[in-house]
Amino acid sequence: MRKKVAVVYGGYSSEHDISVRSGKYVASVIDRNEFDVYEVHISQKAWMVEDKYPMDRSDFSFYIDGEKYRFDVALILIHGTPGEDGLLQSYFQLIGLPFVSCNPLCSIITFNKYYCNHYLHDLGVKISDSIIVRPYEQVSVKHVVSRLGLPVFVKPNAGGSSFGTTKVKQEADLLPAIEAARKESEEVIIERFVPGREITVGVIRYNGQIKALTPCEIRSKKEFFDYDSKYNPELNEEIIPAPIPEDKLVEAMRISEKVYNYLNCKGIVRIDYILTHDGQFYYLELNSIPGMTEASIVPKMLRYDKVDITELYSQLIYEVL
Fold it and tell me: pLDDT, tens digit, for every residue of 101-143?
């Protein structure tokens, strides 16, 4: 009997709509000769299977004409909470449902930018200096500027797609930027600006091995690679392979494979860096559930590297069954 696969998308964050697009694309590429595929849309209002059948959250099952259906495996395509922060992974572990995604601990660590950065820094990965702002904590603008200088990036400590992220060039703009970030996350991270080129690397587990995909350079026509730039092709260039020296392409891939291993990642991730003018890679963040629409960066990398996405997902599913 063919295995029943739940492709889970949506979520509770500002990234809901992008997650839906990612999930529908992934659902479309899974081999229907091997698997029975069901789309599961999670939102604040309801958990629905194929937009028809309510989900029983006690065991992630549903009914069709009185017959109960259980899944054999879940593919998590939720960006943000509850898919990227470990909540859904923990729930699936509790009910005994295998899933394709990083495990709960890895997800929790990578979703918290400040903690993840400093964990990796202790393992030798270069990061930008930063300050964490706790909920209700008062911020001294003078202290931030004296330590980090200007400009700085102000970001939600937990979140993605650059929602709530601001590049601050003037002292007067710092506190409003913090308040904007707090709308996405209780904690806020303020990072020293590192000038350079933005390089991103997809990493997968393929044929039993950790494999970094060919790096991509992102060139935004805006101040930085914000939400509009990510999803409007007129506002950015995504160049594969990144037009950097061959030794730097290899270095970016090797660093990314080490980070994937350090964090015990599973499935498909994407890691972002700044490549400085003196040739140093500074880690920015790891997306444990990156965008997977047809136009997203990782699928473009897979096509460039001639990795068949249908075969890849078959491998990822069988790996956890």
Answer: 999 999 999 999 999 999 999 999 999 999 999 998 989 999 9
**One domain for residues 95 and 165:** no
Encode burial over 72-95: b for 16+ CB neighbours within 10 A, e otherwise. Answer: bbbbbbbbbbbbbbbbbbebbeee
pLDDT of residue 198: 96
What CATH number should be reported for the domain holding residue 21? Answer: 3.40.50.20
Helix (H) or strand (E) holding 122: none
Q: Where are the beta strands (DSSP E) in the chain?
A: 3-10, 35-42, 47-49, 53-54, 61-64, 67-70, 73-76, 99-100, 130-133, 152-156, 166-168, 188-192, 197-206, 209-212, 216-220, 236-239, 269-275, 281-287
Residue 1's pLDDT band (boundaries 50, 70, 90)? confident
Is 298 inside any structural domain?
A: no
In whole angstroms, give the CA distance from residue 296 to residue 19.
Answer: 11
| Phi, psi for 111 (deg, rounded to 5) | -75, -20
Angle at 85 between CA 84 and CA 87, to 5 degrees: 105
b/e code 226-247 from CB counts within 10 Å (16+ = b): bbebbbeeeebebebebebeee
By CB atoms closer than 10 A (0-12, 13-18, 19+), residue 6 is: buried
Is residue 295 in some structural domain?
no
Helix (H, G, I), strand (E, B) or coil at 54: strand
Burial tier of 8 (Cβ tally within 10 Å: 0-12, 13-18, 19+): buried
